[in-house]
Amino acid sequence: MPEVIFPLDSSKKFEDQEKVGHNRWHPEIPPVATVKPGDSFRVHCREWFDGAIVNDDSADDILNAPLKTVHKLSGPFRVEGAKPGDLLIVDILDVGPIPGEDSGPLAGQGWGYTGIFAKRNGGGFLTDQFPGAYKAIWDFRGQIATSRHVPGVSFAGLIHPGLMGTAPSAELLATWNRREQALIDTDPNRVPPLALPPEPEFAVLGSLPESEYARVAGEAARTAPPRENGGNQDIKNLSKGTRVFYPVFVDGANLSLGDLHFSQGDGEITFCGAIEMGGFIDLHVDLIKDGMSTYGVSENAIFLPGTVDPRFSEWIAFSGTSVTLDGEQRYLDSHLSYQRACLHAIDYLTKFGYSPEQAYLILGAAPIEGRLSGVVDIPNACATVYIPTSIFDFDVRPSASGPAQIDPGPGAPHSAG
Amino acid sequence: MPEVIFPLDSSKKFEDQEKVGHNRWHPEIPPVATVKPGDSFRVHCREWFDGAIVNDDSADDILNAPLKTVHKLSGPFRVEGAKPGDLLIVDILDVGPIPGEDSGPLAGQGWGYTGIFAKRNGGGFLTDQFPGAYKAIWDFRGQIATSRHVPGVSFAGLIHPGLMGTAPSAELLATWNRREQALIDTDPNRVPPLALPPEPEFAVLGSLPESEYARVAGEAARTAPPRENGGNQDIKNLSKGTRVFYPVFVDGANLSLGDLHFSQGDGEITFCGAIEMGGFIDLHVDLIKDGMSTYGVSENAIFLPGTVDPRFSEWIAFSGTSVTLDGEQRYLDSHLSYQRACLHAIDYLTKFGYSPEQAYLILGAAPIEGRLSGVVDIPNACATVYIPTSIFDFDVRPSASGPAQIDPGPGAPHSAG
Amino acid sequence: MPEVIFPLDSSKKFEDQEKVGHNRWHPEIPPVATVKPGDSFRVHCREWFDGAIVNDDSADDILNAPLKTVHKLSGPFRVEGAKPGDLLIVDILDVGPIPGEDSGPLAGQGWGYTGIFAKRNGGGFLTDQFPGAYKAIWDFRGQIATSRHVPGVSFAGLIHPGLMGTAPSAELLATWNRREQALIDTDPNRVPPLALPPEPEFAVLGSLPESEYARVAGEAARTAPPRENGGNQDIKNLSKGTRVFYPVFVDGANLSLGDLHFSQGDGEITFCGAIEMGGFIDLHVDLIKDGMSTYGVSENAIFLPGTVDPRFSEWIAFSGTSVTLDGEQRYLDSHLSYQRACLHAIDYLTKFGYSPEQAYLILGAAPIEGRLSGVVDIPNACATVYIPTSIFDFDVRPSASGPAQIDPGPGAPHSAG
Amino acid sequence: MPEVIFPLDSSKKFEDQEKVGHNRWHPEIPPVATVKPGDSFRVHCREWFDGAIVNDDSADDILNAPLKTVHKLSGPFRVEGAKPGDLLIVDILDVGPIPGEDSGPLAGQGWGYTGIFAKRNGGGFLTDQFPGAYKAIWDFRGQIATSRHVPGVSFAGLIHPGLMGTAPSAELLATWNRREQALIDTDPNRVPPLALPPEPEFAVLGSLPESEYARVAGEAARTAPPRENGGNQDIKNLSKGTRVFYPVFVDGANLSLGDLHFSQGDGEITFCGAIEMGGFIDLHVDLIKDGMSTYGVSENAIFLPGTVDPRFSEWIAFSGTSVTLDGEQRYLDSHLSYQRACLHAIDYLTKFGYSPEQAYLILGAAPIEGRLSGVVDIPNACATVYIPTSIFDFDVRPSASGPAQIDPGPGAPHSAG
Fold first, then answer.
1. Beta carbons of D312 and B311 less than 8 Å apart
2. Closest to A269 in 3D by CA, of A165, A372, A331, A343
3. C307 vs B156: CB contact, 8 Å cut-off?
């Protein structure tokens, strides 16, 4: 086990730890630790809501999830010798739930959760169809997840960090703030909002001096979106064995990460759609000097995915096109196409006895694949969603004998607010 | 070999064959043949432009590709006993280039082509960056494709039909025409157009009586977009061994298909982005009576993909977010995110010596995977594109020693018009 | 389709064809055709018994299978410029049943067979437990095989040539005859025999001049065993896309091949254990000059397996050790261990309703994997056999609810003689 | 993390731990802990030689490895309610090196070793060709192993327990002793021996009362061979996620396990051929009452392998037949065939610059696959060995340009004794 350079004590809040991380992006947040190219090290990660979501059968906590407090990030970690223009190589050596703690009140202690956010609290991919708040608790047994709220499915976790990235430069941060505010300004009162501006309330900025706090908190970017620095990419395939290359924008690179997922489907469609948890991650870092221009990687992350994630050979797939549920034709809108594909999958699963919310939660949490199948056939983009058939305890394929019927049990906890 | 119920003679034009197919969707196009549930049969398919694109080193044919003439479809095939409300099960038993003809003037005779369409002729996924016309010819050796226009890559074909579907009902057709015209009406003079309205010119309607031709040609839907009946889904994974379930909208189902691809990347991003070819397909059909309501599959196709397509264990992946090249922030636009991911991949490949067009053609034709990685992290959707590393003759991974340099050769033929 | 350089007419016997192949190994058998390095070409192959095994419900033909007549090989094909010491590169571009003939009396015309040979006619891997003759007929639908004699299983064929190799030199042939006769001499009257000596009766030697026939037929090696030249290796993974490297022992290499299998389990354990058929194979050849010494490949074939064979993610596996059924401990005998693993698998499958013979036939024909798991743990070698679970129509895994029961039907035809 | 029911302190010898395991099989060895069906629990495992092999550049420790002291097993674990005739279900939830200790003197503390045993100390699969002692030290970085003694290779570990099994009944133990002694008696002075009889010296028997020690130590079976109870099967695919079913021979089942491997090739051919280490394993147990007769599983283990082991799509494979190096023909000897296949692979790898011992160590430690390809083609069995090409830093495939040359470095430490 590599040295723990960012420890977390599960009995304490994120802000009360020996080393305090952050929940905003800003170049001035001081590094909590320094590593050298070639180093391996372990980092603890807190689940993104720092314990606000609990292991029970109510969705009230999801309904009132404190979005201004997220994401609880570990870091920044300074990499010696990293300069703007370099590529930072990050190898994910290992990643998992909180080691040595398989029960307790904190997600990652043997369990995790998936939430459907209420529309008034951010919503999810299908918020128009699912405006309420729902929750599912998943139990871990080794690498297998099952849920008392979603019977009939079990699967090996495709464990990964939802969020990892380097610090933005001041210039890059300014670009983010400018372009996101411009978007917000097009419909400032929208529910849910179009984007999230800097929010000083609940900002955690590591060991930033008190004197700088107000200014920096007023500038620092929210962590929800992925951006040029990687960030909250929610790429389920950043699993163990993956090598990621990040652009470096500030001296030392200042790598931060968090938002661990025990599993997630492509898209993380219920918003809090992965199986959220705290845990640990072991990393190895290195540099390609001047790699940004050498490889043309200057405003995105690239990666070589690992080869030990769960393997499936059989799938059932659903297609969708860019026509709204109301029958309106949209022009090559893959986002909409994927929504329609997911809704078709949900409709299908309900025929086996699932509630629509249970089906939606499965799509959020299980290792489904979302594909951009056709993007040029005007006016309809075609997206597809692939569900591994072996995650179900029953035969999920269509046949002349009709769908098997599961016992959906009490269902996913719901809170209408 | 199952019985050939739709033969094509490679020496004759599509309209001059013994049995004539069609290139529009309409419920009244008469079936060319009838099959029974449980039957297996072979169908020949003509490449979508019926020979207009030739095996040479010019892109003039791509520049002037006659879009009103596409797609040349085999069918309709009437399935005895199929009624609206049923699900039609189609097993793809086999699919390949024109059997017994490995050289000749027709795509599918041992070769195929990938085109980048000019912006004024429909464009492609990245038409703003690639407004001109380009072409690559691919040679087949067994299941392996290589191209004199794109050196350094070779891969096993993921052979599939780009287009397959059932006939729409009159009501469904009317819905299509209504909603697509409404979209066109929002910007009727756009280049390229938002959608393609019915086009009597060059309409081929099988054995429809002369007396009905004008009316039906004026109503019949163009075949470019995928719709509720399946259609031009361009799903690369509809490969050998796949079972597809289509909704049935008319008595007899009236299945049609065509647009065979020797290979394609997710999205078919260059528009004519697959390796286009004619060939054969062997199908087996069956029915699930009343399956549309039983399984909730009423306005989309679902499928169980085959298990004999090419297998890769190592990939290089690129992410993109929904910020335009001009720096404008868009709201959760996965279509844009995938464009950016593809552009990042193209930039990367140019560092190895490829021209941007060669890189673009690789993404269109090779079995890349396009994924919807994050769709809820406002305001940025995250899409990723995965390229199998083993398709390259050289090591395509980033390293401290910098990119290997290929000899790009004369490059992809270009026609500026 | 590459040029057919060795055509077969399904209505004629192997010896009555336009070009006549051979069924023995000898350096003096004249080439039937010459190809050049870089050439692609098609070869037809006759099933190994040339039609003696028929599509019916009796095993009399298996009981009396004419072993002296096999294998019916296509070739030899001379490769221009090949010299002893070179490596011959053979790419398997495509391979399949008889094209364009999906019904008829010849295996490969839409069907194939698996036989359990009677002990007095050669036996199989488990001949002490299965001394009688049995047969199963398999029907092909696309790449899928099913059998009326073995219900409840279906699988995609892992199509491959059971036999391919270069001609031996006179010296190598002499070595074979010497060492095999020495083995036979240790127990000359054994049933089944230890090895098969040269057998002039039924020898087919292509276009060898009459004057040489008697001498050559008396020297020529039987084709049953694999040897330094490749030969009857029965490696199921020599599927489409595979590249094989053979040592060259005579000028021109003189490549021959045959014994096509629609599918086979590792070991081909029922002797005639694959799904036997005739068909076609498309090859591409090239040379590595002096490759035998350069790569140390002088008395075996090496290969790069293809990547489009059927893919499975879930298996049930059985182990065996080198203790005989009578309880005798043998020393590190992996052959025995694999027998015991297969017998354990057969016992297990009978609990689901299969007859032992049906289970045995499944292991012969389906794409099972046989592994040498432990070979050093004195005195017990450990071998394992892996069966893909998805080939069964039912859940084949052990559970508290006990095994599902299939209807075994009339079972596999049996002939006691 | 499940509760640790068998802890090990890395600073103490195996016999000095709080709970003491065992290194012989006997029904009377008392359970160290009791679990219930449905329980999950963690077990620590000591590497098989309890620290006798060290992390240095000498093979003296391998030369003198104390074989009478192995294997250091954790257990026995009594399962409440288990009765003879039941099947014990064991789920491998997780398995890995010593948690929290990534450096130190004990294999499993961030490193492991592979040894080639000297012929006079047991030898290995190819001991006639490799009679001396050799060693390679492997370093772990996450799930990746590399070795300073074997440059140019790195691979993800296929981590698994080499040994797991239930206690034999008195009757079964007597059977083992009887049949193994009978084998020894056929050549009692052979070097290496044919089998290992009970050996009181260095027997560790847990908490067995002193009064019974001498008798039990004189009866207890050695742990080297796999037998009816599972035992030292060295099946590399018993990786995380695997479910194993063991016959139960005594009340409580009395499960024991150990001999963890960070990786291993099929066969574990160098004898100490895996990457040996200590570590932890998390298990979940359950029962199928009377499962032995229900499923016909009475003298072997069966298993459903996990789906998260390392995945490869490209391999280079070598075949071998049952002819000895001296040219003697053996009858269908798959063991010999695999030896010849491995020797061919070793010859091949030396052409790239490896010493034969380095190549042999790669085959022992890397996730190679050993297959029984043909077992009926008298007189030659055909075995094949598949090596994943991506484990090499260079292109290991044959080509016209000849083999790349690695720098083999100082090579594998050797001790001739």
1. no
2. A343
3. yes
Buried b / exposed e across A91-120, counting CB within 10 Å, b at 16+?
bbbbbbbbbeebeeebbbbbbbbbbbbbbe
Q: Report DSSP state, residue C192.
A: S
Other C-beta atoms lying within 10 Å of the C-beta of residue D37: 17
CATH of domain B315-415: 3.10.28.20
Interface of A with B in 79-138 (CB under 8 A): 87, 122, 124-125
Q: Which of A2, A156, A307 sits opposite D102 (nearest CB)?
A: A2
CA-based nearest distance A44→chain B, Å:
23
Give the DSSP per-residue string, A261-287. Answer: ES---TB-TTEEEEEE--EEEEEEEEE
Interchain CB contact of C390 with A (< 8 Å): yes
Answer whether C378 sits within 8 Å of D196, measured CB to CB: yes
Cis peptide before B226 (omega within 30 of 0): no
Q: Using a CB-CB distance cutoff of 8 angstroms, which residues of chain C are in contact with residue A390?
A: 313-314
* Nearest CA distance, C394 vs chain A (angstrom): 10
pLDDT in tens, chain A (417 residues): 789 999 999 999 999 999 999 999 999 999 999 999 999 999 999 999 999 999 999 999 999 999 999 999 999 999 999 999 999 999 999 999 999 898 999 999 999 999 999 998 888 999 999 999 999 999 999 999 999 999 999 999 999 999 999 999 999 999 999 999 999 999 999 988 999 999 999 999 999 999 999 999 999 999 999 999 999 999 999 999 999 999 999 999 999 999 999 999 999 998 888 999 999 999 999 999 999 999 999 999 999 999 999 999 999 999 999 999 999 999 999 999 999 999 999 999 999 999 999 999 999 999 999 999 999 999 999 999 999 999 999 999 999 999 999 999 999 999 986
Closest Cα in chain C to D274: C374
Subunit contact B321:A225, Cβ cutoff 8 A:
yes
- Cα of C374 to nearest chain D Cα, Å: 4
Distance, in Å, from the CA atom of D306 to the CA atom of A144, rounded to the nearest integer, reads 11
State percent of chain B over pLDDT 70: 100
Domain range annotation of chain A: 4-304, 315-415
> Are B148 and B139 within 8 A, CB to CB?
yes
CA C392 from chain center: how many Å?
24
3-state secondary structure of B391: helix
Give me the CATH topology for the region B4-304.
Jelly Rolls (2.60.120)
Task: Tell me the chain B residues in contact with residue A399 when contact means C-beta distances shorter than 8 Å.
Answer: 288
CA distance C21 to C46: 10
| HSE (side-chain half, CA atoms, 13 Å) at D113 | 28
Q: Is pLDDT above 90 for C272? A: no
* Residue of B1, B143, B308 lying closest to C94 (CB–CB): B143
- Triad A134, A136, A137: Cα angle to 5°: 145
CB distance C1–B101 less than 8 Å? yes
| Residue from the list A93, A141, A310 with its beta carbon closest to the beta carbon of D142 | A93
Enumerate the residues of chain A whose CB falls inside 8 A of the CB of residue C313: 311-314, 390
Among C158, C308, C314, the strongest candidate for a mutation testing the A interface, having the largest count of A CBs within 10 A, is C314
Chain segment D253-301, per-residue pLDDT in tens: 999 999 999 999 999 998 888 999 999 999 999 999 999 999 999 999 9
Global pTM? Answer: 0.96
Cα(C68)–Cα(B396) distance, integer angstroms: 53
Phi/psi for C135 (5° steps) reads -145, 150
A230: left (phi over 0), alpha (psi -120 to 50) or beta: left
What ipTM does the predicted assembly reach? 0.97
What CATH number labels D315-411? 3.10.28.20
Contact call for residues D324 and C182 (beta carbons, < 8 A): no
As given in the structure block, the two tokens for residue A354 are: 């699932």
Tokens 């391999």 identify what position? D315
